[in-house]
């Protein structure tokens, strides 16, 4: 697994169990942390930098006040860990009946949005999560990505394994719009082909000014861009597509609105794209990219190619089975066998009667 993100001017990336942070504006020593070392520490160790969870984490999000870390796990529970009181135990806030895959918060820290494997998006009050504000329902597969756009704080974007991106008014749970990404392909495909190759949305990201919404799908070498406009009501409009030289693994916008893309490539894993004159152009060698590459490359080269492309979602798709046809076929087969058995029994009885009649002596 590999991921990228920005925290201010810090570029943060993960390569398997190693976290690397590089300052893009100043000449500072990169921060490197080996997560496997922390895992080996005893759980009773007193350390302000470690928190222990019950099950494997599937999503993390800080509150906008940065005083609380919310952790979603594989069993569907959400725990809250205090940043200002590091010795405090994690508090169970809420739970789903299935695995949680994505989580985000409203800009005012009032609501928490959680998405699970069973196609549900739940909007809950953060301070009292048992108080559910709404459900956003409509996806046909697991929900894998959530985003509250920075300039449209009352809207929610969601992506799913059904290959769609949906726009919601999350307080009411009302769906405003839905886009099937297979319909936006440059080479149109038939309906049967679209059903077979539904892409999985793995990341939805917004530029700082909210002008560009980027959607990344797993194992698809393009990035789909949308614009979110207020025309009476919010409308999500396809804008352009960025074709990449390699399969992308993750992406993020920096504070200047440039798109950083991490790709499955040994030679050039990181690329920066800037929006100029209506098009996204590659910035080959910027000072920031050179600085990040120097710190990032040693850790990237130790990451095996098979590990880089591991999928989080490939085993989560729900398969549909035509049980009715199978049942009717077996029923018909059973009826035919019963009919054949009755016919054979009848023929056997008729044969016995005929034989008995022939062997019975006639009276004089």
TrEMBL record:
Residues 333-350 have a biased composition (Basic and acidic residues). It is found in: Nucleus. GO terms for biological process: tRNA (guanine-N7)-methylation. Keywords: Methyltransferase, Nucleus, Repeat, Transferase, tRNA processing, WD repeat. InterPro entries: Trm82, WD40/YVTN_repeat-like_dom_sf, WD40_repeat_dom_sf, WD40_rpt. SMART domains: WD40. The keyword Iron does not apply. One of its GO terms (cellular component) is tRNA methyltransferase complex. Its main location: nucleus. Pathway: tRNA modification; N(7)-methylguanine-tRNA biosynthesis. GO terms for molecular function: methyltransferase activity. Residues 330-364 are annotated as: Disordered. Belongs to the WD repeat TRM82 family. Required for the formation of N(7)-methylguanine at position 46 (m7G46) in tRNA. In the complex, it is required to stabilize and induce conformational changes of the catalytic subunit. This is Putative tRNA (Guanine-N(7)-)-methyltransferase non-catalytic subunit wdr4-like isoform 3. It comes from Scophthalmus maximus.
